[in-house]
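In response to the reviewer comment on reproducibility (Comment 2.3), we provide here a single inverse folding case reported in full, input and output, so that an independent group could reproduce the run without further information from us. The structure tokens appear first.
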């Protein structure tokens, strides 16, 4: 496999791209579009070239031509995972990069697609092992023969050798007292394939050299409780799982990672859940070491055990996400992350070992029950570097609560609304020399008197607010609503931002107690018929470098 030479539209420069790194090539108007992996960064790059796509295709030996939505496209034959026929047309799954598989409904039949492939292309409908719940037989199942499928997943797994793909037809299966993970053996699950764990062992375990799972599998352990459904602990593996759903009844976590290895990727197209009811199991749990990033994607992440949305400490239970001392980075992408059930928290222990890896979360935290305590917050942050893009709402307590007793704390809220119906939008407690960037909007609720609460020792901490972002807004049902209240004897730095209070019976943008220290750089505003924008008791130290309006 060689190099393809093209001319960049943007600069006119000639560049070479290794054909093995190309995932897609197609014509767009008068230019061609090349999608490929950058060999140095590992990220997908999209470049436009002046040559026609057909001319670039003529330089290739491993690309093949097919039709998508009436348009000719060229794909990399060596990235094929699986083909199948749907309503007479080919459905193709192919690997975009090491973690991501895309599925395309093509405009040609499966037979025509296979005929267009190089003879030694992987996938192409030809798995090494086939499994069928309706027609398979473990006694006659034969590796490489689609007419003689196995009946059980365990038998197909035992027959597979490194490099094989096991293709599983629609139907109900169990794990046959075995983990399904096997070194360099990949799986494809057709739409309608359901796998139920019949023992307390996880369905997907870790192995030294890793594997990939594709398709539309539905994985659960039914009414049987187990510690976890997905368990990763190998330092040398890279694993990717893509499926329809992962629904655990797990006492520890539905997905548990103790070592990221060279990278772990888990994607469920509908949901990842934990329905365990007695031991406060987590949903996603990250700890330990590893050199690769862990990525989790699903529209719904739900834990019906009552506790936090996100935590940054070791032993929290009932969470949607817990980072407990992990040194690797974690990315989580979701639309909704929730743990709605009201339950006792008396058995929960909260450790203090902070995560040192960076965590990025995109999506909304929704929590229907909480309290003022740290461990009831929608987002509880005890250490490490954490960034969030999205909303966080709670009925009671804090939307975001930072409480740190030693490890480095760094938090950035990129955008969204943090809202507590009865409580603080943000609460900072015992956060020594920490940095916070709040670029969203923040609103406290009906009975709480301040939106940003400060308590404990916050020496050296700094809060940065995005310019012209409301902070402490619209406390409409409160009395004496306060945007920011500092009850400590330590310096708090507030930079930028717009602090506005609009409540029914008096309002203060900032309220400081005796011996408090507050530095503010920005704008303060309260309703003209309300109380002062700033209340400073005797002995408090206060500095402000802009006009106060009220």
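Designed residues, in position order:
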């Amino acid at each position: 496999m060689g190099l393809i030479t093209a001319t960049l539209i943007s600069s006119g420069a000639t560049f070479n791209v290794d054909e093995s790194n190309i995932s897609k090539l197609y014509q767009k108007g008068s230019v061609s579009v090349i999608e490929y992996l950058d060999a140095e960064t590992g990220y997908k790059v999209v470049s436009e070239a002046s040559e026609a796509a057909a001319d670039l295709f003529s330089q290739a030996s491993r690309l093949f031509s097919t039709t998508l939505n009436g348009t000719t496209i060229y794909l990399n034959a060596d990235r094929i995972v699986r083909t199948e026929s749907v309503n007479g047309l080919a459905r193709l799954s192919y690997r975009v990069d090491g973690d991501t598989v895309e599925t395309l409904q093509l405009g040609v039949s499966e037979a025509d697609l296979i005929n267009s492939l190089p003879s030694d292309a992987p996938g192409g409908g030809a798995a090494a092992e086939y499994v069928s719940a309706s027609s398979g037989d473990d006694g006659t199942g034969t590796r490489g023969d689609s007419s003689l499928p196995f009946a059980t997943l365990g038998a197909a797994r035992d027959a597979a050798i490194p490099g094989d793909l096991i293709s599983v037809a629609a139907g109900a299966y169990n794990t046959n007292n075995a983990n399904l993970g096997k070194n360099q053996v990949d799986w494809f699950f057709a739409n309608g394939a359901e796998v139920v764990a019949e023992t307390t062992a996880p369905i997907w375990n870790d192995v030294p050299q890793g594997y990939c799972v594709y398709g539309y599998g539905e994985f659960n352990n039914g009414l049987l409780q187990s510690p976890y459904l997905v368990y990763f602990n190998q330092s040398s593996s890279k694993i990717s799982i893509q499926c329809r759903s992962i629904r655990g009844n797990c006492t520890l976590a539905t997905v548990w990672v103790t070592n990221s290895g060279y990278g772990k990727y888990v994607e469920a197209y509908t949901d990842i859940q934990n329905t365990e009811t007695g031991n406060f199991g987590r949903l996603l749990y990250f700890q330990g070491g590893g050199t690769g990033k862990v990525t989790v994607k699903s529209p719904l992440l739900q834990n019906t055990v009552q506790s936090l949305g996100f935590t940054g400490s070791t032993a929290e239970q009932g969470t949607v996400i817990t980072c407990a001392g992990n040194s690797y980075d974690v990315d989580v992408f979701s639309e909704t992350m929730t743990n709605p059930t009201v339950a006792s928290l008396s058995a929960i222990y909260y450790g203090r070992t902070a995560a040192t890896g960076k965590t990025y979360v995109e999506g909304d935290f929704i929590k229907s029950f909480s309290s003022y305590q740290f461990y009831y917050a929608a987002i509880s942050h005890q250490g490490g570097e954490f960034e969030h893009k999205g909303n966080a709402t709670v009925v009671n307590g804090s939307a975001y609560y930072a409480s740190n007793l030693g490890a480095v704390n760094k938090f950035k809220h990129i955008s969204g609304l943090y809202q507590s119906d009865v409580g603080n939008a943000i609460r900072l407690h015992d956060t020594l020399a920490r940095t916070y960037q709040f670029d969203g909007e923040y609103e406290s609720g009906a009975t709480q008197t301040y939106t940003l609460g400060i308590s404990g020792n916050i020496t050296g901490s700094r809060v940065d607010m995005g310019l012209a972002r409301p902070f402490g807004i619209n406390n409409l049902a409160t009395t004496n609503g306060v945007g920011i209240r500092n009850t400590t004897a330590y310096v708090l730095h507030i930079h930028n931002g717009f602090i506005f209070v609009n409540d029914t019976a008096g309002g203060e943008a900032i309220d400081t107690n005796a011996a408090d220290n507050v530095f503010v750089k920005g704008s303060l505003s309260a309703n003209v018929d309300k109380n002062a924008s700033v209340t400073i008791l005797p002995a408090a130290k206060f500095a402000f470098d802009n006009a106060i309006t009220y």
